[in-house]
Amino acid sequence: MNAPPSTHFGKYEILGELGRGGFATVYRARDATLDREVALKVLAPHLLWEPSFSERFLQEARLAASLAHPAILTIYEVGEQESQMYMAAELWEGGSLRDLLQHAGPLPPPQALDILRQVARGLDFAHRRGLVHRDVKPGNILLRALPEGDAEGVQAVLADFGLVKALSHNTALTTTGALLGTAEYMAPEQIEPELADLGPHTDIYALGVVAYQMLTGVVPFAGTTTQVTHAHVHKPPQPPHQRRADLPAAASDAILQALAKNPQARFGTATAFIQALAAGFAPLPETVKPPPAKGAPAELLPPAAPTRDRQERRFTLPPLKLPRPRTLALLLLVLAVIGAAGWLAWGGWQRLFSPPMAAIYFTSTREGKRGIYRIDASGAVVLVLQSASTVEEWLPTLEAPRGALYFNSNRTGTSEIFTLEQGGSLLQVTQTPNGRSSTGPVHGPNGDLYFTSNRSGRYEVYHLSVQGETVAVTKTTPRGHSRNPALAPDGSLFFDSTREGPREIYRLDTAGVVHRITHSPTSAGSYEPAFSAAGVLYFTSDRSGKREIYRLAGGEAQAMTETKGQGESWSPVAASDGAIYFTSTRTGKREVFRLEAQGRITQITNTPGAGESFLGG
């Protein structure tokens, strides 16, 4: 039965049907208790054939209901009534973006950007709290007009957070091959899960499809479901400016980057994508300096002189060239108060914007897209590397021993590893075949390099010798992946892998034998290993229900962070100063923190505006 049996459904009076699909029917209803009208979504009864589905649906719906943001539809209640699951949400008096596009066709860029900015803010808010929508499409973007004179003119909200994830665990659907999502807006990794895990990049791809459709009037790929899903995985989309003559090529390029097949080649955040798209409509500069000839070295990167006023020094990087720095506004606010009373403690966390003991490198979106920065012991923040185009650089090694900084860049179209040498030369280190990617460089002991790549079709750990020979270090079972190498003091290699199902940490000893190190509780995982200078293993695990930093002590996992609220902590990286640096959303967005062996935690970065700073993802 797809509808409530009468004009009443528990405390809700059914006023009419708003729409229906294969998984649910939506009604206009009145909550008799609170005397307000709601949108009541009642799930199809066949979804409850699997007993555990109800629990998963309630869990996902409650997580979605916890998202309080102007661009996310408010969920009032979830529950079960008359053997049917339901969700009561804010009744949105207006239409959807799908309705608008069907009526108006391609939108003027200012109107499209207004809507996209709002949706991007909502997505980034959810992503920072660990939720991925998985079904971003015009039908799930609701619109209504704002009062005359409002700057944006229309309010947009995202609906249906969490439903697709709950459905994805329903074996009655997955074993019959049901497509969970909407084919025209699905990222490659949703169609072929072995390509990559789902994450914020999945929603960014879908938002790229929505932007493409808003500006051209069509989706990138059309046809049968089989044709569309095959194209998402294997075919490049036609550039948007070829479908709409007045669309600038730079705006078209931003959309194409959001639609990159490789998740790591997409933008780091939804907002970064929309900022790049908006910049694509801006007037071009009067002169454009050509890049240097192939093989020419970049200009020398001047060292950051210690500064006591915490000034940020910026370097802008056109392809393969570093121009002179210029001074920006004051970035770090130093909270220096005599004695322990000057430290603002958050349950063991110190909100002291403290410089690191050694210079470290990190990724930040403070300029609107991912770039590489350095902060040294004086507290000076330096923009080391950022392209002037839509190219992004990210995932630098925390430090640069022997003067070489390794990092990821999509300047070749896919994620590859580059190095910035001490003299300023910028060199490509990996050339991954078949359009696949290489990522996450880790320094070896002798100038060699370890990294993760899917060049074989699944992710494995590779070793690049100083002679330039690349060899697979791990060989994972079919459909499994191995990632995130970390070298132990005894020369063995640690990594995380799904070779036995759950994501756990393994050790490859010097004899070539693989040992499982962690055994996480059911449905949890352990990953991202890192060794401190003292030889202690740190890692990320979600065994508490969300990501936190742990260390292995006496064979037992010991929690080193207890992040308050909905915040999480992850991506531990060891530094030569003996500390572990990691990323946390303790403050509401990603920032870099420092963890000392005795457990003291200090905040290292305090990124201005909507920008974030982070290690790893």
Quickly describe the structure.
With 617 residues, this protein is an alpha+beta fold.
CATH superfamily label of the domain at 95-279: Transferase(Phosphotransferase) domain 1
β content, as a range? 25-35%
Distance between the termini: 43 Å
Q: How many β-strands, per DSSP?
A: 37
Strand order of the largest sheet: 1-2-3-4-6-5
Give the integer mean of the pLDDT values: 79
Q: Tally the helices: what do you get?
A: 10
Account of the 3D structure:
A hairpin with a 5-residue loop joins strand 33 (569-574) and strand 34. The longest helix has 20 residues, at 109-128. The protein is α+β, with helices and mostly antiparallel strands and 617 residues long. It is globular, with a radius of gyration of 25 Å. The protein starts with 7 loop residues before the first strand and ends with a strand. Mean pLDDT is 79; it is low at 166-179 and 284-353. It is 17% helix and 29% strand. Among the domains are: 8-90, Phosphorylase Kinase, domain 1, CATH 3.30.200; 95-279, Transferase(Phosphotransferase), domain 1. Helix 3 (109-128) packs antiparallel against helix 10 (270-279), helix 7 (200-216) packs antiparallel against helix 9 and helix 9 (249-258) runs antiparallel to helix 10 (270-279).
